[in-house]
Every structure is written in C-alpha cells, then in structure tokens.
Amino acid sequence: MPVHEITMEELVSLCKTRGIIYAGSEIYGGLANTWDYGPIGVELLRNVKKAFWDFFVYGREDIVGLDSSILLNPKVWEASGHIASFTDPLMDCKKCKARYRADKLIEEAGDARPEGWAGEKTDKSAIVAFVKEKKITCPSCKACDWTEPKQFNLMFRTHQGVTEESSAEIFMRPETAQGIFVNFVNAQRTSRKKLPFGIAQIGKAFRNEITPGNFIFRTREFEQMEIEYFFDPEKSQWEELFQNWKKAVWDFVTKELGIGETHLRMRDHEKDELSHYSKGTTDIEYEFPFGWGELCAAAAYRTDYDLTQHQKTSGESLEYRDEESGRKFIPHVIEPSLGANRLVLAILLDAYTNETLKDGTTRNVMRFSPKIAPIKVAVFPLMKKDGLDAKAREVVRSLRSIGRVDYDEAGSIGKRYRRHDEVGTPACITIDYDSLKDKTVTVRDRDTMEQERVNIADLPAHLRGKYHFD
Predict the structure, then answer these.
(1) Which range is least confidently modeled, 13-22, 247-256, 334-343, 355-364?
(2) Is 1 helix (H, G, I), strand (E, B) or coil?
(3) Gap between the Cα atoms of 47 and 294, Å rounded
C-alpha cells in the first residue's frame, strides 16, 4: 500500500481543479514557488489559523495575542543574529552552474550528514570531502564537480524611503518571533500577566530559500503560527514545560486538526542540528510522499538568548520583576512554532481517500475534520423551480452561524454529492417536494453516505451536535 493514496502531482492538479490552491501569477506564466489559495483553500487555511487561536489563546488563561509589523528596525536582526548567521550552505555545479543547498544535496542522496556539520559553523572542507567521497552528482547535469560551500543569507532585502539615494536597507522578517521579543515588556505590562505566560502571533514571514519546492512545503513566502512562552528558570523546570508543550502541540495537530498519527512522529534535534540559541528542540515530522519532513517545532528551548540580545543592542531593559521577591531577571523562553502552509499540505494528504463503492464506482473524498472543513454544509434544491430553490436559500440563511454554507444547484444530485465529497463538506442537505409539505429535509453524511430526515427547525442544533463544528 502506498504511503498516501495521492501523489504530489495529483494533489496539485486536484487543488487547482477544486479551487484549493492555484499557481501564482498563472496568466503571466507564473512566478516560481508562489501559490494562491482559492475559494476553498482560503477557507481551509483560515480555519487552521482559527483552530490555533481557539486552542492556544482562547482555550488557555496564560496566552495573549500580538500582531507585529512585517518590517522591523534593522537592528532587530542584528541583535537576533540573523544578519550574521541566518544562512544556508550553498554549492554551485561547475559544469552547468546550477545552485543547490549542500545539506539538501546530501539529504536527497540518502547519506547522513558529514562530521563537523553545524549550520553556520559547518566545516566547509568536511562537506567538500564528503560530497566527493559519496560521489554526489548534480541533479541537473549529473556531473560531480562542485564549488566550495559558501554561506547564503536567506533574508529578503528591501528599501524604505522616497528616493533610491535616501532610502535605507531593511529586511522582510524571516520569522515572526522577533516581533514578540521586542514587544515583551509592552505586552506583559498592558496585559498584566505574571510568569509563566505566553504571547502568540500568526503572520507572514519571508525567506529567500535556495531550493524551494514540493508544492507548498517549502516556499519563500509563508505563514507562521508561533508562541513564545516566558518563564522564570528558578521557579519552573524547563524540562517539564518542554514536555508539556510537546504534548500540547501534538494534541493540537492530531485532535484539533485531525491529522492521523500514522504519518506523524516526534524527532529530537541532534546537538549538531541545534540553533546557536537552542538547548533543545523537538520537531513533529510528517511522512510526505517525498519522505519525512518537518511539520512544526513542537518545542524549542531558546533560553534567555533573544531578550538578552535585544536588551544589549537596544539599551532598553527587558527584565521582569518578580513581585514576591523583587528580583529582576531576563525570562527564559520555550517556543512552539507551526507553519500554517505545511499543516495545510499535511491535512490535504492525510484527508484524501479514493473509495470504491458497492456498485463498482469510485469517489474521491477529503475527510477533513469538521472543525477545519472549508465548507461546513452544502444545501441543494432538488429542482430549480416550484419554490424549492427559494426554500433552499432560506435554509442556507438559517445555517450561516455554523460557518461557510454553500448553495449548489448545478448538475444532478449525485454530481453535487461527489463535488462536495472532494472538497470535504461534512454534510449535504437536499430540499425536495416533501420539504415544502412537512418542513423536513434529507441530510446526507460525507463519510458514511447515510441519509436521514431532519426537521428544518432542528437543523442548526442537529448539525452542531453531530459534527462539532465549533
């Protein structure tokens, strides 16, 4: 049995056909590695972000929200270390001039990383020797003649100012976390939160990836959902908090988003993989059709690195004062970080099912959790006449509080069912001639295809009780 019932190529095609995700700027020939979320996809993405906010912010008393700007003072990135060390090792093929990330070349060749691999501190000679020893060839021309690795900064540069001469170089943020750190004192003071507490943010980030690809898995523009959880290291054990956050993120991914555990695993970073600020990081990985890949960072222990760096660089105090003892100190931080786009990709792959029915026909079904389903309910008039369409629109209006409700009158009832199965609509409602007489409708379940008659007046409560949309 294949890892997934759909290939990446088939998924890209399905996403375009059903209005989930389109290639960016398609009418102009596209722009490499850009993707636009269509009418169905934007609802799925929005529901994933809403689920994150509901679960971690509204569902807890120790998390507050923030929405910081994309453009930050360049000193922010100097303090955080991004200007100096936010890099990937880059190698060029001497024959065809193609450019690749050294770590990805090694990874895709199926070999372990060479000794001395440590991000920006990588021993370049060790990489060159390893690539030659393993005879790792260029994916484009199959030659094995590489330049020495050089570090490539992943931040997008832009300029702020009215003229080229007077404009200053600034950066598109490569992560949302730093906007939280520079606002720590503001958020703590105005929310009156005591340690431990967290600040959550959802927002766009930008990285000039050398080798983006695999659909929306690795893109240059993406959306992050992050929490910085601040605590007093003298009162809280980081190991305990770390485990709690790992469990919380695992529960969110599996229970709230409905991603099955079959294709998931936890993976602790090895010492040579850890970021320079991290004392421990655990990823949740998903088994994509192209192999295991990072889905999200369930927890990363950043110590007091970020706040300390910003305090040094800005000259402003970012200390927290403990009310009981009067002690002032820089809080430590544990960070859960989730990519909304990667979660959407995993959800699509995990939900897709090609099912053979008793009559020998097949149907494609997206078995989304009702909480994140793009369309919650579809309403069909049996015919577009005799008042059935008017009654169907009346039912649509009565269900708006559930979420997105779709009115569909195009094609046969069977075709409408199949269309909504393929975009994961949990329930379809048909208005027939009996509906005009006894005020009941047929409700058809996506997964079982079973049908039941329900009073129109009872529909909102019935659907909420059965599908738990909220």
Answers:
(1) 355-364
(2) coil
(3) 21
pLDDT of 110 reads: 67
Percent of the chain with pLDDT over 90: 76
One-letter amino acid for residue 448 of the chain = T
Residue 327: both structure tokens together? 């002690």
Torsion of CA 41, 285, 278, 68, to 10 degrees: 10
Continuous segment of H or E residues that includes residue 11: helix 8-17
Burial per residue of 353-370, b for 16 or more beta-carbon CB atoms within 10 angstroms, e otherwise: eeeeeeeeeeebbbbbbb
Task: State residue 103 phi and psi, 5-degree precision.
Answer: -65, -35
Helix axes 39-53, 340-351, angle to 10 degrees: 110
Give the separation between CA 186 and CA 210, rounded to whole angstroms: 36
Rounded to an integer, what distance in angstroms lies between the CA atom of residue 172 and that of residue 156? 5
Contacts with 347 (C-beta within 8 Å, 6 or more apart), sequence order = 44, 48, 257, 258, 259, 368, 372
- Tell me how far apart the alpha carbons of residues 115 and 130 are, in angstroms, rounded to a whole number: 9
pTM over 0.85: yes
